[in-house]
Protein 1
Amino acid sequence: MYQDRRKVIVIGGGLVGSLCACFMGQKGYHVVLYEKRSDLRKDSYMRGRSINLAISHRGRVALRSVGLEETVLGSAIPMQGRLLHGKTGALQSMPYDPVFNNCIYSIGRNSLNEVLLNAAENYDNVKVKFDHKLVNADIRRGVIRVQNKTTTEVFEETADLIIGADGAYSVLRSAMLMTPMFQFNQTHIEHGYLELYIPASSGDKMTPNHLHIWPRGQFMMIALPNKDTSWTVTLFMPLDNFTSLRDEDSIMYFFENIFPDAVPLIGKNSLVHTFLSTKPSQLISIKCSPHHFGSKFLIIGDAAHAMVPFYGQGMNSGFEDVSVLSELLDKNHLEVKEIIKLYSEMRVQNVQAVCDLAMYNYVEMRDLVMRKSFRARKAVDEVLYKLCPKIWFPLYNSVSFSSLEYRRCLENKKLQDKIYSLLVGVLLLSFLFVFINILRY
Ligand code: FAD
């Protein structure tokens, strides 16, 4: 798209939308960002909550492009690996990348959003309008309808490029749903999640610089560190199990039996209070195709590919969407309609692959990590990765520490699984052969 001060509208000032506004601002476009909520930087309730996310390579690359990587990582906490908590309280560390020492980082969602909004507003050509909600879109006419929530006035708007970064329940995507050949698939998994909290006063008893996991087969609990030594804890569990925990006795019985070492850290009162006052949140996975419509509409981030959070790639893949779009926009000879079509062609398969990987990783985190077969495979992966990193690229490393297309990461995994099964098969047959020969003589 020619940088002759064309107009871009971004809908949604969450993580992906506000980063997108920075990229578009940097390119010199006139940018208007509409966010339905009020400004979180002025909202004392939002400021008080610390919910964190893991940022990895793809997210960092995008932040680097707009000069924000250092600022963001400056307030993030490195996590070198998983720390598994057994039922008896036994701990086991599982580094993410013992070969090249790469790590992921825990960052506060709100502070990251604040950094991104501040950066977007620093561009003179970016206007952020809070309390402005996309009501609907007449995508055939190329216009959107926005409501100013303060005055309740609804007005029509248009631009050369309109980007929906309005999250998993995207209004722009709903408008695209009505168009011919638009594919849409939505899955609510039967597991939900509840956020708990380890305060700074007991957080220093937790081993730092790890993502803590309490894997329990059908469900799990995880904890990510905050800067003040507190930890944000998330319990993922079938929704039916949440329903059965209705009173103090059942909650405490459950925790003391399943997560005994976490009870003193979270504290009984806080545990019971959170359970009795909060409904578990649902988890949704959304795939759709294409991600564009006509000559100007595009959806990115959760609006285009919401995924279950188990690979820590929702935001990272959304940030990568922005990097990919930005590279295409720099191809000056292309028109917007060609760019967004090309974007869809490049991106759909990749983000659908990471949605599948995210589903798989829940099983890995809550169950497989405890199995000897998983650990044996991880050890083999690490040896082969060290010996021939260009040929044997383990799944977690390719997803979290590289920009390899997600579908290639998935294809690699499938191929490696086959080779590994073959190796194990050959090994077992050789043992059998030796064993039979010993018996014969
Ligand atoms: P959102 O964050 O949902 O933002 C959408 C924005 O659009 C919001 O500000 C909303 O108010 C606004 N909006 C909505 N509708 C309208 C409208 N009609 N008009 C105007 N504005 C509108 N990802 C990771 O990479 N790493 C992690 O570790 C990680 N952990 C997670 C843990 C949990 C429990 C969950 C649920 C998700 C996790 N994710 C993680 C995923 C990550 O949170 C999302 O992928 C990311 O927030 C998506 O950003 P987004 O901007 O696309 O959408």
Protein 2
Amino acid sequence: SHRVLIIGAGGVGRVVVHKCAQLPEVFGEIMLASRTKSKCDAIAAELKRPIQTAAVDADNVPELVKLLKEFKPEVVINVALPYQDLTIMDACLEAGVHYIDTANYEPRDVAKFEYHWQWAYQEKFKAAGLTALLGCGFDPGVTNVYTAYAMKHHFSKIDTLDIIDCNAGDHGKAFATNFNPEINLREVTANGRYWQDGKWVETKPLEIKRSFDFPDGIGPKNIYCLYHEELESLVKHFDIRRARFWMTFGDNYIKHMEVLVNVGMTRIDPVVHKGVEIIPIEFLKTLLPEPGTLGPDTKGKTCIGNWIEGTGKDGKFKRYYVYNIKDHEDCYAETNSQGVSYTTGVPAMIAARQLLTNPSEYRQPGVWNVEQLNPDPFMEDLNKYGLPWVETWPTEPLPGE
Ligand code: NDP
């Protein structure tokens, strides 16, 4: 069995730790390290088996390297924030450790959602004989695996890809975000973008709105077209004419968001307040409920899936919709976390399990987006470890097409 270091004791970190702890035959030794050690200890106390915990500043490469050399993990699962991706990758290179994350690197000053910083590590990881698996949450992550799976088994050519992310959960609060508020708000308030005919088409924030009738009793919800990072790697690795990403937002969420944007509370540049520089969105994060605390009260389901149209293996037109439905309360009962953290943390654990136990496919030296690897074992693990998927062949086009 193997040694794994999980960095980041937030909502996603909690799920990764719980899921890894459930598989002692794979994850023999677990350490959870984060900025605040007491948060790691609180998570450790929820488990049936002991794990180690540590404080680490993941912005600090020497500090990370020291921890890695002491604990000697084979793989790091980075579920801190996107700002820490490069420092953790640097530390992994220096200490000879494989690397997994769930979100692409972002500089603090501009929200970009681009992979080039991490793709630039390709040669370094190759030369070191190490593997970096990027974007192994749900979206990015499972949505990339769904696309690879569709391409491998059902399509000879994908014409259109629509990734549709629905959180039909209700946390009972006037306003809260389901994962890190700063990342969430940066994502939603940015201009939208989708891929069409070989180039990006830009939209205003939340400019394109449709209604989609979600399965399993969720019913119709408003979905908004926005940019999401997996689009960049998917259109690089597959020939797709049009690729879009949609997310549901309730009217109440939009109303709060509009006010916050209009008054400047989502700004990511520093402003001087009483002689102190503050970044408004960071201050807002201090005021909002921590996503990790929403778990006990969140009811309802998440539904994330890929709607794909194109030419099937038989040369005929095909329309395919593959998705997962997850119930927030089930997630909480199993891992003390709501569905958004759960659907991100489980794939991160699966990526680590594959890397450790399926080296010929998941431990090739270099930097990989998960759709570049064989999707079949990942899809099997999704069914085994809590995120079962459903395949359907819709007869009607996407609403609005
Ligand atoms: P949280 O804010 O709940 O947790 C982040 C954790 O990282 C916190 O425990 C925080 O510590 C810790 N941290 C932050 N900075 C540092 C640092 N410099 N050194 C050490 N630890 C640090 O976020 P989530 O759990 O919701 O999200 C985790 C990651 O997952 C994010 O990168 C997010 O973008 C990604 N994500 C990916 C999704 C996907 O589907 N692919 C979906 C949802 C999230 P402290 O508590 O002390 O501040």
